[in-house]
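Re: folding output
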Amino acid sequence: MEATEQVVDNAPAEAPQDVPIIRSDGMFKDDWYEKYGEENAPTLSRIKNFDDFVNTHMSQRKMIGKDPSSLVEIPNEHSTEDVRNNFRSKALGVADEEAYEYDLDPEVKEVIGDLDPEKMSVAKKFFREELELSPDKYKKVMEFYTKMTADDTKSFMEKTAAQKELDRQTGWQLLQKERGDSLEEDKLYADQITLKYGMREWIKNNGHDNDPEFAKILMNIGRDIAPSRLKGLNSSTQPSTEQVDAQIAELRSDPGYNDISSPKHKTLNAKVEALYQKKYTKG
């Protein structure tokens, strides 16, 4: 029987070759850190290239000797919720919701009034959860916003008041031109209407005092009724002392009364002087 020849391969087995973790562009492979354990993934996954590796090493050397409780881990996509919350609290200063309170400055509150509680609740949630602001930063943002709003509101109110005053002056000028010499007499008729029907307080409270348009309406009503039909009042068109004083005060309140450069200065002063003469020669 022939012996079977056995061929023995004495060549050494090839050792497994390491797979390179660095790509041709110099970046680490996306999963290079997986073989080092899942527990190390949050830290190692931040290292994307050799520069990251060196910087991480140098940063860790600087931390040697420091109190571990003072160090804050920067969260990434692999971090736990505890790590994220710790970072928000220690690094960003985000606190519990109760810490996000804001009291309006009294001067600001006088202009814009109270803040809407429901809107404030939404604002606090947005600044705390979305923008991750600390309570101090939240208060600074609110202080800036409310003060800016108050300044804008005050500016608008001042411009509105100035325009209203200009419209008032223009209205009286047009009324003077329209009525001419009968204007003073028409004013008396209007004044008698307000006195007869107890309208003075209502006119003042609703902003119609010294309003040329409203005064024109009263003048027309007064003319239609005529003083002789306003029972309980003197049928004479001669003004009372109270009425004369009111006319004097109105004329003196005009800026042109004291402004010698105003084209109305002489006319206003002449009217005031005539009213004083009427007041003291009456009766």
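--- second protein (sequence, then structure) ---
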Amino acid sequence: MSRIPQGFIDELIARADIVEIVGLRVQLKKAGREYKACCPFHDEKTPSFWVSPDKQFYHCFGCAAHGTALGFLMAYDKLSFPEAIEELAERLGLEVPHEAGPTPARRADDDLYKFMGRVVSFYSETLARDARARQYLAARGLEAATLTQFALGYARDSWNDVLRRFGANEAERQQLTDLGLIIEREGGQIRDGERHYDRFRDRIMFPIRDARGRAIAFGGRIIDQGEPKYLNSPETTLFHKGRELYGLYEARQSRVVLKRLLVVEGYMDVVRLHQAGIPYAVATLGTATTPEHLKRIFRLVNEVVFAFDGDRAGRAAAWRALQNTLPEAREGREVRFLFLPDGQDPDSLVGSEGREGFEKRLAAAVPLSEYLVREVSADIDLSHADGRARFAEAARPLVAKLAPGVYRELVLERVAQTIKLSAVRLQELWNQAGTRAASAPLPTRSAAPRARISSGRGSLVRQAIVRLLQFPASAARISETERAGLDRLQEPGIELLRALIDDLKRTPAQIPAQVIERWADKPERESLEKLLLKEEVITSALAAGDELRAALLKLSELANTQRLEALQLKSRTATLDDSELQEFQRLTTKHPAAKLSR
């Protein structure tokens, strides 16, 4: 898959005017050096939404929405990251390059999208003419407006309807084959003058649309009895089922602000939920929820609820979803599981209970951590040591899948509570067991914490990071000696400071928004954005550079002090080697009061 070069994203951010981008969608008013407005992402009467042309950044002090021009397009226009890039590039008259070169199949893909659009219209026209198909949908409770909204159609019980309509020549038949709409007969046999036949027959057709609303595939539901009940398009140039979510386009087009997504199993479930006033429902496409699905979901919302049928198959699907979700679960995100009564699915349940009844069930959905504990302990007797030990061993690889951070610590505590151990002791025992499972051992509470940015006003690391963010070009003035002085330093946030300096020296940036977008997929982005929002008294780029270098000098001195103390400590229990003695002598020239233990 081709990737957009970071250099092009930097150029795009530098050339875009966030005031213009936001101003086309929100009425901005000049306020000093910045612009303000009522926030477009939540209801308010007093403006708390600010746009900074200097930082090329927006922020709402009411709901905390913030980001660059790209982030605004993604949030307001409900675009994916690549789509926001395309939108901004088109506005600036630029062609989006790819690291594998410009996508050579783009024009061919455009033809395929148009072709799919024609097939969608054909199926919709067929549905409008077929009384039996319309009666079936009416019996399922679907309204005419819903059929139009989701562009539902019907494939007649025919082996060659689509083939005859769209396969007049070899080129068109090849397009139909590439899109998975027709199938070549085994061995290339010819029957009734045709070597191919239609994939979909006597099925209600659900177009699967991408983020731009273009049809990329179909799901077909049999009207009467038959197997399979649902038939999906195969993987094609346009369609990769492990990345797509049915109903996501419609959810993003709804007028409500998306705060959560509800993941269900079937096309009909999605359609009925939307019709009932739950427009945030989506479905995976005949496959388990994948990491790609989850990354896409969490780019849009911070909360996801999985709803599954209450039968054995539903419980199995829920467990697979939990296992795939664990690596993406972290603080700031909420994952819950809703189990429906036996014999019910979202389609039937929302039909009988309505939106309010269904959303009451959503409010009672089980958090991921509780579902994990409940499921792992389901067949284990926790009343004795043997059962609790078995539970701990079963939970260990699951907890290990979680990303380091607050959420992982809290889940560890919950598991430890179940077996009546402290979290520290449980982790120590897991580390000692050392079966080297899916991920590295969890840090105990007594272990050194992961480097983080200090929010303290006096933190030298924080001051240096803020100045790099405000004036990224100042990184060019940092010498190799000044940078090397940070290598041995052990201070909160130092890893991020080193990474920022290295990145900006390797690839210079001019404005804060460029720096933020480079960290778009990294957990440190949130910390950087918070620091960017803080007002610092920095008079000029020159002053920022001077203050940055002064902070680096003090940090280098601190690193020397830490190293000197480490050598002194080692000398109390062991003999320093020649290189360490030379290092100690060099450091003591700056700290003459330091002494070695004898």
